From TrEMBL:
<keyword id="KW-0732">Signal</keyword>
<protein>
    <recommendedName>
        <fullName>Outer membrane protein beta-barrel domain-containing protein</fullName>
    </recommendedName>
</protein>
<feature type="signal peptide">
    <location>
        <begin position="1"/>
        <end position="22"/>
    </location>
</feature>
Amino acid sequence: MKKWTGMLLLWIACCLSWHAQAQRQTEYNRKGDEALQRKDYRDAKMWFEEGVFAECDRYSIDRLTTIWLEDETMHVSMRTVMNKCLNCLTEWATERDTFAIDKLILYYSRGIGTAENPVTADYWRRQLETVRRQNRGEDEAPTATPTSATPMRFFFGYQASLLAPFGIRVGGIVGRLGWYIAAQSNFSFQGHTATCRTADGRFIIEGQSGYYGYMDRKQANVLMASVGLMIRTLPGIYTSVGAGYWQRDLIRQYGTADNAGNIYQRAWAKDLDASEKGLKVDLGATYLLPRGRYYVTGECTVLNFRYLYPALGVGMIF
């Protein structure tokens, strides 16, 4: 008897717990709908996002999508929750959920919770057609099988820093991850025929005899390159870290004089004491502009863990 009584109490407790949870689900959707009827989108968003963050509630996702489409002024405050909706839908879509796939087509077509991406939207259209055909018992043609879940998008842009104002940045992003290759220069390529030392305050040409002197002209040749990885940390924002090589050659002009002090030859020498090279480390963030066709990037470049230079860039996404 005690055994059956215990089982009955356990069953009642489970039912009460389920009933309380169901009531809670009904509450946030009910109050969200009431706010929608009043056109109070902020209040409705507050109730529906509770369902999304708690358990990826489908009805809440559908209602939040409606709010996004009806009121553009809500977009900024909804970026985080719509990115969560996108993650929920993507997880369901991998299990051939047609509701989720249909929503993903809309999200990538209109840039909801992510950058607008017509290529990815077309991919999910093909996936939806494939699932529907298979549900009808039709065989899919082998050529229609996609090779990857999300196609990679490539970008190309201009990158500049105080030390090297001319540069390019290329790379690709797929889902939450990406990569890049960057190269920068100051477009100075002054050659030299000798090397010199200036550390002790004296200008000395190595291996040079006779009369010579510094002409008070100098030029720096700067070249740097790096590769790195990118990861999406916020909707439309990728944080990046990279490493590479940098080199700065300081070239000084000097003149050779005869016994009378007349300069008869001018040449350039590389200053070994002022020239440097070594490790380059990049830390930055890339923001995909609305519609996902352009980007801006801000970066902090650390050279030999001694020098710090800011860098900025803009570019196009294909």
